[in-house]
Amino acid sequence: MQEGVARVLHGGARLGLRTRIHCTVKSTFSETRLVPALNDLLIANPSPAAVSRYRMGWLEPIDLRSSGEPRHSIYGTTIRFGGVPYEVKNSLNVWSSGMWVSTATGSTAAMAAAGGEVMDLNSKDLQYLIREHMIENDDSGITRAMDNGMLTEGQKMHLRWNSQKGRVFIDGSHLTHNLELGDEILIDNGAPPLKLFMRDDVY
Predict the structure, then answer these.
(1) How far apart are the C-alpha atoms of 201 and 203, rounded to whole Å?
(2) Can you spell out the DSSP letters for 35-57?
(3) Residue 87's closest CA among 102, 95, 77, 96?
(4) Residues 111-149: tens digit of each pLDDT
(5) CA angle, 77 as apex, 76 and 79 as ends, to 5°?
(6) Cα 108 vs. chain centroid, distance in angstroms?
C-alpha cells in the first residue's frame, strides 16, 4: 500500500478507466437514474422462488419530425427516456429468474459463476445473461441464443417489467431500487467511467 501511494504521488502510476453501467428506471410518474454500477446489476423478483417476467429488446432513437406517419412501439406508444423518443427492436418475452448485466470488471464474479464470459478488462461492452430462462416450443434455437450476449458501445437495452414486484440490485445487495408492474428500464454503458490508478501488471 505504501509503495503504491508513493508511486502515485511521484507520478509513476498508470491512470486507467473502468466502464460503468448506466441504468434508468421509468415509472408512471417518475424517471430515476440509478447510481452507476462498476461491477454488475441483478434485475429480479425480490423473492428467489418467484418468476421474473419482463420483455427485453433494444432501443433505437426515432425522429418523429421526419416521419410522415406516427411511429408506435409494440406497446402502442412511443417510448421516451429523458425526452428522447425510441422504438423497441428485436424484443422477446422472458420468464426467468431475472437477469445479470455486468461490466468487464464485474465479469469475473457473479457473471462468470452464472455461466457468462470473462471479458477483457479494457472492454467497454456490457454483458447480459438471463438466469434460468424458461423456454417452450423454440425449435429454431433463436430465443436460447439470446440468453447471453453483449451490449456494444451505443447500444441500449430495454426491459418492460411485467411482474407485480421487482428489484434492481446495484453492485451487490446493499443498494437497490424497487420495480412495479409496467416500469421500463434502459441500460447502456453511458455512465461516466471510473478513473483509478492501477498496477503495472494490470492491463
Answers:
(1) 6
(2) PPBSSEEEEE-SSTTSPEEEEEE
(3) 77
(4) 999 999 999 999 999 999 999 998 766 655 667 778 999
(5) 130
(6) 16
Which among 102, 105, 101, 100 is positioned nearest to 122, based on CA atoms?
105
Give the pTM: 0.87
Place of cell 448485466: 101
Q: Which distant-in-sequence residues (6+ apart) come within 8 Å of 183 by Cβ?
A: 25, 26, 27, 160, 161, 166
Model pLDDT for residues 59-100, shown as the tens digit of each residue: 999 887 665 555 555 555 689 999 999 999 989 999 999 999
**Secondary element (H or E) of residue 185:** strand 184-188
Contact 98, 131 (CB under 8 A): yes
What nine digits make up the cell of 40?
A: 454488475
Q: Do the Cβ atoms of 43 and 166 come closer than 8 Å?
A: yes
Q: Would you state the cell numbers that stand for residue 185, as one nine-digit string?
A: 428500464
- Which amino acid is present at 78? T
In sequence order, the β-bridge partners of residue 25 are 32, 185
Q: Contact at 8 Å (CB) between 168 and 43?
A: yes
Contacts (Cβ under 8 Å, ≥6 apart) of 81: 24, 26, 31, 59, 184, 186
Give dist(CA 102, CA 125) in Å, integer. 9
Q: Does residue 2 have a pLDDT over 80?
A: no
